[in-house]
Amino acid sequence: MNETDIFRALADPTRRLLLERLSAGARNATELREGLAVSQPAISQHIAVLRGVGLIAEQKTGRHVTYRVDPDGMRPLVDWLTRYRAFWPSRVDKLKTLLKEMDQ
Amino acid sequence: MNETDIFRALADPTRRLLLERLSAGARNATELREGLAVSQPAISQHIAVLRGVGLIAEQKTGRHVTYRVDPDGMRPLVDWLTRYRAFWPSRVDKLKTLLKEMDQ
DNA sequence: ACAATAGATAAGCACAGACTTATCTGTCGC
DNA sequence: GCGACAGATAAGTCTGTGCTTATCTATTGT
Asked: Considering A88, B59, B65, B72, which has the largest number of Cβ atoms within 10 A of its Cβ?
């Protein structure tokens, strides 16, 4: 998945909120929508975007669809971050070490 | 600086390219533009966005303006990442440790 | 079988944003 | 002072995207 699409997906506050909710545990679209002043199709479209960039995954059981965070989805973003040593003067090496550990 | 603005700023490939160039060393707007098939005002506008969200800083000396990466500009993005344990099953603690080290 | 439910898709609208050309501002060398 | 240069701003265009309502699809319980 390319960085542009991931950054774009995360640039929307509603989508970040959905991710926030999913990061607390898997749930379905109706539950994701609870309390939000946005229509059902809007949620469905947001979910499609998040799924399209690999940030979430769906699990179908009958008519019920459960969404969960894809743990690897955020990796391109982290990889991108590590390419910018200048942002992390003298600290990026620690980050690189961390990422190596994550690979295992 | 709020997360939405930073994600939005980073969602544009041209702006990420400019950051990439600046991360290799400070330079002025004309140098940043080199080789890009985009007008001078476009570069100027991109720079304004990056500066607005705190990702880069300018340094004026007479009529010459030099831009450089702001090392702290990316911090909100990293902070946001750490809030999503689910993305980093069992790894986020290491990331949090790293961030503590960065604070020192 | 059929009504209800969950979610996706279609179509249209409105606004945001990335781009352009033209122009303005400010600083330097001469 | 004045022309050259670096960069910012103005104004307009075009596309992308987030939203809506309406509708479709698929699965379930009764």
From this structure: A88
CA distance B98 to B94: 6
**A22 and B86 in contact by Cβ < 8 A?**
yes
B35 touches strand C (CB under 7 A): no
Distance A92 CA to D16 C1' (A): 35
For chain B, which domains are there?
3-103 (1.10.10.10)
Query: In the structure encoding, which two tokens stand for residue B38, read together?
Result: 């985009």
- Residue A82 Cβ < 7 Å to strand C: no
Pick out chain A residues at pLDDT < 50: 86, 90, 92, 101, 103-104
Q: Which residues contact A8 (CB under 8 A, 6 or more apart)?
A: A53, B11
